[in-house]
Amino acid sequence: MKTILWSAIIELIKILLVLVPVLVSVAYLTLAERKILGYMQTRKGPNVVGIYGLLQPLADGVKLFTKETLVPNHVSLVIYFFAPILALTLAFLAWGLLPLGANQVLSDLPIGILFIFAVSSVGVYAILMSGWASNSKYSFMGALRAAAQMISYEVAIGLIVISTVLCSGSLNLTILVQTQIESVWFLLPLWPAATMFMVSALAETNRAPFDLTEGESELVSGYNVEYPAMSFALFFLAEYSHIIFMSFLFTTLFLGGWSSPLQLAPSSIWLCLKASILVFVFLWVRASFPRIRYDQLMQLLWKTYLSTSSSLACVVASLLLLTDGLPPLLCS
Q1: Quick check: is 75 in a domain?
Q2: Calpha distance 150→152 (Å, rounded)
Q3: Rg (CA), the chain
Q4: What is the pLDDT of residues 33-87, one digit of tens each?
Q5: Cβ(232)–Cβ(82) below 8 Å
Q6: C-alpha–C-alpha distance, residues 67 and 73, integer Å
Q7: Per residue in 233-287, pLDDT tens?
Q8: What is the pTM of this model?
Q9: Through-space distance between the first and last CA atoms of the chain, rounded to whole angstroms
Q10: Does residue 55 form part of some domain?
């Protein structure tokens, strides 16, 4: 009994060692976003609370979690409160399969990539539930947009990832990184897939220019328009956690994960550095591009990315057969 208890405590500590840094990163990602957008728009951003505004995320968190929760009288209560909890749970669940360094992974599943995309696909149900339970036309329209957007990019992004799976020969993320360490980062031979994956990641995280589910100009705030205080904070944490996760996933799939050209720092630091650069790209894109129209999104994902990603998967598979299991740029 004591052995089982100690094992449970150790596993809980491991989970907290992953989730607590994620929550801190989410808090300061909001500050970084406001600062970067401010400087790109020739203003300072938050600079009052703490030195250079470093305590602003703490002030925002205290405000959100101490604010009175006003529940509209026209909502479906059970689904209304369950939706943000489901969104945050699914956002945190995928972190358990992400290798953060050599032998640093909570659950090293043989089908890790498949499980991650299964969790990502289920995540849209939280948005659908919030839009339907709110009984608001703006929330419901945002939820419908999220569902259509998910169906559009999930097919293409799955075909994009197939290219990396074919090159590594495994659905395990750790083996995929080790394949890149032994040969070359997949960003070089598979740069078209990497580019499409990055754009699809913007669509998956509902970030500009694909933030159609939260279009302030036409939907007020989208699917979370009826959520105040703590409920809104849970959606907020889920969205920004997903942004950081997709940056880490891109690093794992195409940038060699924890591998580094120089062994001057621990592997996890290199992984975080690469992911931080990709997070900056998310913020840079938001400051640079306007929101596209909905028909343009459908045309991009269905007419362009679906055909291109499927063709790329066929080309990679053919080259693997011709080169005895290795893509041409990985052959010595």
Answers
A1: yes
A2: 5
A3: 21
A4: 999 999 888 888 888 888 888 899 999 888 888 888 888 888 888 888 899 999 9
A5: no
A6: 18
A7: 888 888 899 999 999 999 999 988 888 776 555 677 888 899 999 999 999 998 8
A8: 0.91
A9: 54
A10: no
